[in-house]
Every structure is written in structure tokens, then in C-alpha cells.
Amino acid sequence: MKRFFGFGRKKKGRPAAAGSSAKPFPTGAYELRLKDLGKLHRAAARGDLGQVRQRLKKCGIDERDAAERTPPHLASANGHVNVVTYLIENKCKLNLTDSDNRSPLMKAVQCQQEECVAILLEHGAKPHLADADGNTALHLAVRSPNTTVAGLLLEHNAIIDARNKEGNTPLILAISEHHEDIAEFLLQRGADVHARDHCERRILKVRKKDHLVCCFQLQTDTERAHGLFQGSATPVTSWWTKCLSVNTYRLK
User: Fold this and answer.
1) Residue 43: which CATH number?
2) Domain enclosing residue 28, as ranges
3) Three-state secondary-structure class, residue 205
4) Is 68 a domain residue?
């Protein structure tokens, strides 16, 4: 039977069967099948530190499961700070990647496990690694969206204008997906407003004389040349305004 790890926030695990003393199996960002997990990986996913210690007497700390996940991947995705800390203290490798080319840090970011993100970064996890789609941890933070996690990544030298395979920088991604808070945050941290994606869309600025603001949308030069940025007929992907007088940003 499959047990599903949904994208993003942790959810409560299934209740144990009546009369059972077993801990409920956790949910998180992975789709897990019990047959793919050895006892060490199950313990890491559950956050069972005692079992992790016991299993490490017989298993390698960086042992992989059928999907190339290591114990730090599973512990990080589910926010088990004590297990992550123990694995780090015992010299696990922090930058190994799973079958999607995602590191434990990327899984912690994807699942918004802020404490795990901080611990991993403090101990040498690399924030600039890219997954199979070219997304870095900062792209995943934008998709969450989580400004706290994005800030932690930038404090540890994440590349603010890194591009994924579609040519999207984190800022372009934030605008495309209507995440105003994190778009504001990236702009305040110096993200490049002149970047273009692979479709040659760029962030277009238009001054409104009456309100001292600049409107931003993703638009190609061809669209601009045909005057599509006119009135209600504008094919706006997303746009937001910058209040020039106070140097702050907000979406409209």
C-alpha cells in the first residue's frame, strides 16, 4: 500500500490501528512505499532517534533506498531536527541527491522545515545545487512560498538570480506564480529586474504619472510592440507596483 507524502507542509500521519502501540507513519514531501524503505530509512522518516541509533550499528549512515534517498533526506523532509542533528554529528554527507537530484536541504526547503534548513546550512549544505528541473533551493522556497527560508538561503550565499531549465530566476518565478510577498523580498535583496526567461519574457516597467508607481508584468518584446499592455485587454501574467516615494513593493 502506498503512503503519500504531499508537496509542502507536514500533515498528520495515519492513526495507528486499534490496540497498536506503533507510531503513526509520518507524511511529508515524499511519496513513500514501505517496500522501498529499509529499517533505518523508516526510522529517519518517523523521527525515531532511538531506532536510528540502533540501525546505524548495522547500516551505513549514507545508505540509499530505492529512490536514492539517504536518512538525512527523509528526516529533513519531515522536520525531525533531533535526527538531522544526530546524523550531522555522525558525519553524514549533506549534499547527496535523490532520484530527483534533490539534496536534504532542498527537501527541507520544499517542506518548509525552517529549523532543518538552518541546521543544514550551518553545517555545510550547499544552497546552489540544482534539481532535475534546474531549480535551486531558492526556487523551491519561492514556490512554497517562504520568505524566512529564502532569507536563510541568501544569508548562506544562495545565487539570487539562478536560472532553472525554463530560464526562470526566482524573481520571475515569484511573479509568474503571483507570490507577492516573496517577490517583494527578492526585490529588496537586489534581484535582477532585467532578467528574461527562455520565452524572452522580461519584467516590463511602466510609469503611472498620477501615482508615482511602476507597474511590472512578464511580457515579450513582441507583445510590447503590438501594444498589448493597454487597458483591460492586457494578457498580464502577473504585475505589481513599486511605491517610489517609500521604496517598498506590493502586488496589485
Assistant:
1) 1.25.40.20
2) 1-126
3) strand
4) yes
- Specify the number of domains making up the chain: 1
The answer to whether the CB of 74 falls within 8 A of the CB of 44 is yes
Does 72 reside within a domain? yes
**Residues composing the chain:** 252
- Cβ neighbors of 157 (< 8 A, separation 6 or more) are 127, 128
Name 204's Cβ contacts closer than 8 Å, sequence gap at least 6.
216, 217, 218, 219, 224, 229
pLDDT tens digit at each of 252 positions of the chain: 444 433 333 433 333 333 334 444 443 478 877 777 999 999 999 999 999 999 999 999 999 998 999 999 999 999 999 999 999 999 999 999 999 999 999 999 999 999 999 999 999 999 999 999 999 999 999 999 999 999 999 999 999 999 999 999 999 999 888 888 898 899 899 998 888 766 666 665 534 444 333 344 555 444 444 444 444 333 334 444 443 333 333 433
